[in-house]
Amino acid sequence: MRFDIATLFPEMCNAVLNESILGRAKNRGFVEFYCHNIRDFSDDKHKRVDDIPYGGGMGMVMQCKPIYSCWQYVCNQLKEKPHTIYMSPKGKVLTQQRAVELSQLDNIFILCGHYEGIDQRVLDVIIDEEISIGDYVLTGGELPALVLADTITRLCDGVLASDECFKDESHFNGLLEYPQYTRPEVWQDISVPSVLLSGHHKNIADWRMQESLKVTKERRPDMYNMYTKGKE
Length: 232
Prior knowledge:
Shape: elongated
Oligomer: single chain
Largest sheet: 5 strands, parallel
Helix content: 25-40%
């Protein structure tokens, strides 16, 4: 799978994409990451990519041409149009299910905005969908782009040791994850639940399911209601 990220801060993105599980996935050839500096596609001698907004208002707006030229450059490299995502607080909130769907694609182009936003015309021409990582506003699209790349990459074949690494996690099956424990068996007079020490796989699986239902009902009643409704 290939990710192309269009950004004003490629070094910021590369610092994350070259580390930990993402970096190992890249080095082992499971994914490709390319961070493109939008300024490299500016015709302005000072490499400006923004201008004042029509109609007035605070801040600056990113221009169409540098973004479109960057996107076209990637399209020419791929010899096809990648699925193109704009990270925006106006987009649909990212879910685990959407990450699973996106992990089935071959090429994803992620556009990171800055300043007061991006000229709507280029968004209308190149963007397939807008995605938000939550109902809040950040200074730019780089952190959301990295979140999106991370959550998709870990679902790609070979990146994690086994599918179990993500199938037992929060949100994958519509529930939050059950509590986890490790050594020592007793810490500050608090013991690990005895069922986890029993070696009885069915009882452990039943306990984990009940704990998932419990924590989901307490913390995300919306998810709990949706899950239980689907089981009726």
